[in-house]
Amino acid sequence: MIKTEIIRVNPEAPDGEALAQAAAILRQGGLVAFPTETVYGLGAVIYNRTSVQKIFTVKGRPGDNPLIVHIYREEQLHELARETSATALILARRFWPGPLTMILPKKEGIPAEVSAGLPTVAVRWPSHPVARELLRQTDRPVAAPSANLSGRPSPTRGSHVIADLDGKVEMIIDAGPTGVGVESTVLDLTSARPRILRPGGVTREMLEAVLGEGSVDAPEQVKTDRPLAPGMKYRHYAPQAPIHFMAGAPASIHRFLQGRIEEARQAGKKIGILAYDEDRSAVPSLPEVEFLSLGRRTNPAEGAERLFHLLRLCDQVGVEEIYAVAPPRTGVGEAVYNRLFKAAGGKVEEIK
Ligand code: AMP
Ligand code: MG
Asked: What fold characterizes domain 5-221?
């Protein structure tokens, strides 16, 4: 155990002095958890090899899962990437700062720990005002995976980070809820065509609006056993209770849920139902049933913002089983679908 300093920072007007202290910790080799617009990150300066290794030990992260490097201005891209294609620059100018991570050929001198030995590097310029100010003051590229224990739902509130990392890192910066709520889009620019390895806040539609329709590959992750981003092969985002991930027409799902609710009632067991506001009327209010709302089905951004918070809530209220409705796979709904699919152990149940 170490003493973790927890500071609260206003996301709209970040306190420069508090962040100067955080930047000093990073430069001296400490670990700092900080908010970004996607999820909280656990940062270390990339050139401090032992600090980067510490990220893996603290999180319990497998050593073959590379980290995303965070920057605060475009020029830093050239410090990290051996080559930056015209496509990379176009995307950087359109989507940075923002929730897009680009995989590029790695420059020599970037420690192997950062990229888990791969010849590529993942780079992102986050837009969260606290992240931007912290990175500016640190003035070094900062490697940061999500600030949770490996396998747990990613942290989207300061309290999630404190629950997972208090006593394990030098500092936690709490600036409230993160916003987008799911991790960045990971886009591979080292293959012939741009390829989405992980869907996120910058959607395929948004990328194709810039690069041309049909120009971005988004491999069907549901049907492949081969991991895309190295991180995708591990169990992820999972609360303690098993998740049943259900696809199908709302009417069929509602009928199916009636059966599960009745079973839970008879067994006196608590279940969680992760669904949309539109589904609420189909779920009776009973002590055995915890209805967890992903917001409106018509606005997938609401579900993205709440998803990880609701998964953590499932643990807190002690549900024994979770039934999650598949989100519409449009816009950021694709990212929510992907995380729930992973949280359910890579299975989706077709409800007829
Ligand atoms: P997180 O640990 O939540 O920050 O997620 C980082 C994601 O980016 C993981 O899925 C990693 O596998 C992926 N990633 C990082 N660096 C690379 C890289 N060089 N090539 C492919 N995927 C990467
Ligand atoms: Mg993660």
From this structure: DHBP synthase (3.90.870)
